[in-house]
């Protein structure tokens, strides 16, 4: 079976529930800023396209996490469509994401949540650069205005993940974000390693 699109779903309701539990229980207070101030490096491998598979360096700098109040505001902004979300995140910066040899772009939204087997899931959303030719010729890719990544870090500071370089985000059922990939497969983030910042104990 050939996959035409990769869809990821992000439950804002679950995320907010995690945030409430994290910030209200003193025993879990350290989880609120886990990996804040960290740099995550590794390799990004993309698949498909005319050039086939390609690889390069990946770097994510986490300065701070997006707050619960900001997540609620973004969810409300998405009710008016992804242009509303784009406008809402344009002035936000939680860190920086760098792919390949470029200088990088602001990582507008970053949040973390506990995951299976003691792992931490880090979600990153950023406004991607839409090229002049995409805008001039009205290509379909111009409607995919975001970059979206999911990173899974083990307690030893190593991990892996996926990155959608051109994504469309829409709201479903009031609090679920549906993420659509312009390409057939998302890129893989491999050999990830955390350096610096607060680490789990």
3D structure, described in words:
- By secondary structure, the protein is of the alpha+beta class.
- It has one domain.
- 19% of the residues lie in helices and 41% in strands.
- It contains four helices and eleven strands.
- Strands 1, 2, 3, 4, 5, 6, 7, 8, 9, 10 and 11 form an eleven-stranded antiparallel beta sheet that branches.
- A hairpin with a 5-residue loop joins strand 4 (95-99) and strand 5.
- Helix 1 runs antiparallel to helix 2 and helix 2 (68-78) packs antiparallel against helix 3.
- The chain is globular and about 40 Å long.
- 28% of the residues are buried.
General form = globular
Percent of residues in helices: 10-25%
| SSE order | EHEEHHEEEEHEEEE
Number of strands: 11
Q: How big is the Rg? A: 17 Å
Major sheet size, sense and barrel closure:
11 strands, antiparallel
What portion of the residues fall into strands of 2 or more residues? Answer: 35-45%
N- to C-terminal distance: 43 Å
Mean pLDDT rating: 80
In terms of quaternary structure, what is this?
single chain
